[in-house]
Write a sequence for this structure.
C-alpha cells in the first residue's frame, strides 16, 4: 500500500512516498524548480518519488494533502468577519486566489497529476489531513517511540498555531490547541520583519543574531519587559495572547504596525541593508529569550497533561535549535525527537503517515533508532551522471576507484584550509544539509567563517556555521554530549577549548565580537560559545563518517564545518549540474561528486561562465 | 458538483450554515474575477491566507 503525501500552495511544497510505515522518498519542490521555498504544486517532487519506487502514477491509490483547505477558508471568512471593516484590503486581495485555486485543491491535484501519465480517477482517492496533525504525525511516527507527547508550534495552520497531542499505537489525539490570531511563529516572524529580515526565511538569521546581544545589558531586560507587558501575554501553560493593536497580519498586508513598534522600542524599523546595531542584537536576544520561555512552558504543560516521558517536536518553531537546546538541558523528558523537516515540507510526510497509521491501521513498530533514514530521502546520482556533467562543461577531473583514497585525499584538502563541496548519495529532506549536499571546511582556521560567508555563500558576515562531529567524539568538544543527527540542537563548546575573552567582550560591537578569538574550533563557535551540532553516526552515513574520521587521523580533530551546498537565495543543489555551477561561481576550491574530484585551478571555464543571480533571502 | 457536495458536507459537519450566503456571494464574485482575468497572486508577507 503506497501513499503519497503532498504539501503545496503556501510555502515549501513537497512530496513524500511511503509504503506502509516505511518512508521511501521525500523531496521539496524547490530543489527541482530552483525557486527557493517554491509553493507551486510539487509535480517534480512527486515524479521523483514515483521514480524512486519504480511506480507510475496509475499505481497510486491514496494521496493525502497536508491540511484542510475548507477549514482554512472558514478561518479566513470568520476572521475577516470578526475584524471588519478593518481588513477589507487583504480580504479582497486574497479571495481571487482562493476562488481560482485554493478552494479546489482536489481538482488541482487531479488535473496536475495528468502531467505524469494516465490514471483512473475513480481509483485515486484524495484525503485531507489537518495541518497540525500532519506536523504531529511527521514527528511521532518516525521517532521510534512507543508513546510520546507531541508539541507542534508554527506560524499558522487552519485555525491552530500550536498543539499538544498524546500519541501512541492507538493514534494521535490532540489534547490542546492554540488558535488564530495568537501564534508564537507569527510573533517571531514579526520581529524578523522589524529587524529587516525576510519573513519565512530570515528567522534563522534572527536566531543567529540573538547571541550578539548582551545578556547582562539593561536594554535586553527592558525589551523583554516591553514584549511581555505590551505585545504578548504569556499564560502558565505557554499559551499566548497577542495584542493585536501592534500586529498587522490580520487586517493589513504587513506583519506589524511599524510606527507603534518604533515608539514601543524607541528603535527605527531596520531595512535589509542597514547596519546592525547593538540595539538590533539586543532586541533579537530579547525575543529569542521570550520564545524559549514560551516553548519551555508549553513543553512542561505537555508533560503535565499527557503524563508522557518522551516528547516529539515539529512545526516551523521546532527549527529554532536554540530553544530546542534549552528544552533538552531542562531534562523535562527522558528523550526528545525533533522532525528534521519540521516546516511545511514535512507536512507532506506527516499527512501520509497519519493516513497510514490512523485510517489504514498500519501498526506502529517502536524502534531504537528513528525511521527517517538520516533524512537522506532525496534523489541520488551515479558516477555516470557526474561524468555527463563533467563532459558537458569540459571539466578536468580525477577519478578515484577506491573510497578510502578519496576520503584521505578530501580530508587532506580540508586540513590544508581548502573549502570543499561534498556531493554524495541521496539528497537530504528538510532545510539542513547533513553531509550529502554540503560545503565543508576546517573549523580550526580563524578565517574560515569570514571566507565561507563572504566569498562562498555570499551572505551576511555575522552568520554562524555549524559543525559535523563524529558522534562518538561529541563529548570531546561539546557539552552536554548529545545525539543530534539533524543539526537541530544547540549545545556549548567545552571549557578546555575556549579562549580567554577580553574583559569588555559583552560590550563589543557585532564585528568585534565576530572576530574575537573564542575557541580552538573558532569557525563553529558562535559568539556565546554555542554551536548547532550535527553528530555523525557511522551506520547512518558511513561515507561522511569516514571522511571526518580521516580528517581526525590527519589533524586530531574529529569535526569539520558543514554548511549547505548553495549560495544565498539559492535552494540547496540537487543534481551534479547544479553542484558544478555553484562550485564554479564561488570561491570553493575542490568539488567531490560521487567518486570524481574537480579542482578549481584545473578548470578551463571560469566564474563568469556560470553567472547566475538569486534573489537574496 | 463534487466540490459543492464536499463544501456542503463540510459546513454540515462544522455546523457553520451561516457561512453559506457568504460563500455563494464569493463564488459569484469569484466567477466574475476568473472571467475578468484579475490577478490571483497571493498578497501577503506571510502566507496566512
Amino acid at each position: 500500500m503506497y501513499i503519497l503525501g503532498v504539501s503545496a500552495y503556501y510555502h515549501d511544497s513537497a512530496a513524500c512516498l511511503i509504503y506502509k510505515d516505511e518512508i521511501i522518498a521525500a523531496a521539496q519542490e524547490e530543489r527541482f524548480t530552483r525557486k527557493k521555498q517554491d509553493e507551486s504544486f510539487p509535480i517534480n517532487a512527486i515524479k521523483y518519488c514515483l521514480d524512486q519506487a519504480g511506480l507510475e502514477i496509475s499505481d497510486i491509490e491514496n494521496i493525502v494533502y497536508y491540511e484542510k483547505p475548507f477549514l482554512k477558508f472558514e478561518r479566513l471568512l470568520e476572521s475577516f468577519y470578526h475584524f471588519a471593516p478593518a481588513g477589507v484590503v487583504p480580504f479582497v486581495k486574497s479571495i481571487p486566489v482562493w476562488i481560482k485555486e485554493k478552494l479546489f485543491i482536489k481538482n488541482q491535484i487531479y488535473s496536475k497529476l495528468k502531467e505524469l501519465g494516465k490514471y483512473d480517477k475513480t481509483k485515486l482517492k484524495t484525503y485531507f489531513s489537518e495541518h497540525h496533525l500532519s506536523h504531529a504525525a511527521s514527528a511521532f511516527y518516525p521517532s521510534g517511540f512507543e508513546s510520546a507527547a507531541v508539541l507542534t508550534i508554527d506560524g499558522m495552520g487552519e485555525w491552530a498555531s500550536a498543539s499538544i497531542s498524546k500519541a501512541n499505537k492507538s493514534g494521535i489525539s490532540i489534547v490542546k490547541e492554540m488558535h488564530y490570531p495568537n501564534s508564537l511563529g507569527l510573533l517571531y516572524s514579526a520581529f524578523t520583519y522589524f529587524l529587516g529580515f525576510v519573513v519565512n526565511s530570515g528567522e534563522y538569521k534572527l536566531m543567529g543574531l540573538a547571541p550578539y546581544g548582551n545578556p547582562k545589558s539593561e536594554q535586553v531586560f527592558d525589551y523583554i519587559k516591553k514584549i511581555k507587558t505590551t505585545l504578548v501575554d504569556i499564560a502558565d501553560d505557554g499559551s499566548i495572547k497577542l495584542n493585536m493593536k501592534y500586529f498587522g497580519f490580520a487586517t493589513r498586508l504587513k506583519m506589524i504596525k511599524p510606527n507603534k513598534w518604533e515608539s514601543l522600542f524607541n528603535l527605527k524599523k531596520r531595512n535589509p541593508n542597514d547596519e546592525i546595531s547593538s540595539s538590533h542584537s539586543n532586541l533579537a536576544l530579547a525575543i529569542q529569550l521570550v520564545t524559549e520561555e514560551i516553548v519551555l512552558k508549553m513543553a512542561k504543560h505537555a508533560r503535565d497533561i499527557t503524563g508522557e516521558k518522551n516528547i516529539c517536536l515539529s512545526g516551523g518553531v521546532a527549527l529554532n535549535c536554540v530553544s530546542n537546546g534549552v528544552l533538552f538541558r531542562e531534562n523535562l523528558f527522558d528523550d526528545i525527537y525533533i522532525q528534521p523537516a519540521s516546516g511545511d515540507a514535512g507536512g507532506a510526510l506527516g499527512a501520509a503517515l497519519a493516513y497510514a497509521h490512523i485510517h489504514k491501521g498500519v501498526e506502529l513498530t517502536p524502534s531504537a533508532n528513528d525511521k527517517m533514514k538520516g533524512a537522506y530521502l532525496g534523489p541520488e546520482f551515479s558516477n555516470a551522471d557526474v561524468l555527463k556533467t563533467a563532459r558537458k562543461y569540459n571539466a578536468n577531473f580525477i577519478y578515484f576507484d577506491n573510497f578510502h583514497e578519496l576520503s584521505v585525499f578530501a580530508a587532506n584538502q580540508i586540513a590544508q584550509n581548502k573549502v570543499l563541496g561534498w556531493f554524495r548519495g541521496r539528497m537530504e529532506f528538510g532545510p539542513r544539509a547533513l553531509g550529502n549536499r554540503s560545503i565543508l571546511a576546517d573549523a580550526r582556521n580563524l578565517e574560515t567563517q569570514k571566507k565561507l560567508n563572504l566569498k562562498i555563500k555570499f551572505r551576511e558576515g555575522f552568520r554562524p556555521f555549524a559543525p559535523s562531529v563524529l558522534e562518538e567524539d561529541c563529548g570531546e568538544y561539546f557539552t552536554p554530549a548529545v545525539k543530534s543527527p539533524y543539526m537541530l540542537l544547540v549545545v556549548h563548546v567545552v571549557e578546555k577549548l575556549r579562549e580567554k575573552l577580553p574583559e569588555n567582550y559583552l560590550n563589543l560591537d557585532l564585528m568585534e565580537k565576530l572576530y574575537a578569538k573564542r575557541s580552538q574550533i573558532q569557525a563553529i563557535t558562535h559568539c556565546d560559545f554555542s554551536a548547532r551540532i550535527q553528530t555523525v553516526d557511522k551506520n547512518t552515513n558511513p561515507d561522511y563518517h569516514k571522511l571526518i574520521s580521516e580528517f581526525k587521523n590527519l589533524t586530531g580533530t574529529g569535526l569539520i564545518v558543514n554548511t549547505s551546498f548553495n549560495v544565498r537565495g539559492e535552494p540547496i543543489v540537487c543534481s551534479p549540474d547544479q553542484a558544478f555551477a555553484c562550485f564554479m561561481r564561488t570561491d570553493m576550491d575542490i568539488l567531490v561528486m560521487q567518486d570524481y574530484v574537480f579542482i578549481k585551478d584545473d578548470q578551463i571555464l571560469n566564474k563568469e561562465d556560470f553567472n547566475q543571480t538569486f534573489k537574496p533571502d | 458538483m463534487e466540490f459543492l457536495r464536499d463544501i456542503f458536507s463540510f459546513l454540515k459537519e462544522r455546523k457553520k450554515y451561516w457561512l453559506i450566503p457568504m460563500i455563494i456571494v464569493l463564488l459569484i464574485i469569484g466567477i466574475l474575477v476568473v472571467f475578468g482575468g484579475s490577478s490571483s497572486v497571493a498578497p501577503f508577507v506571510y502566507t496566512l491566507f
About this structure: Chain B has one domain: 2-36. Chain B has two helices and no strands.
